[in-house]
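WARN no homologs supplied; continuing
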Amino acid sequence: MTSEKLSVVVRVDVDGEQIQIAATGHVTTSSLQGLYPVVQRTKSLGGGLDVEMDLSQATVDADALDELQIYAELYEVPVRLNPEAGNVTALPSRRRLTTAAA
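OK structure emitted
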């Protein structure tokens, strides 16, 4: 059982190729308003490194999932979700969607 409180950890790959923002707890549309600035700040400080949101250890509300999909597409930030929470396992960035659709 996860906590209602959202906890966020920023991890930098040792090789310096990717930054991962891992969140645990309960993701709601309200808590996303606190998570988005963390993602944007991480992207701006990351020096062009890829940034991924890992929500695989969090509980994500359905309406928050819809909002995350829009955010992931707009800002090209992949989101990792728990595959047991439903049939969606990841929300790819817009670049991946465009490549797959072409």
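The mean pLDDT is 81.
OK
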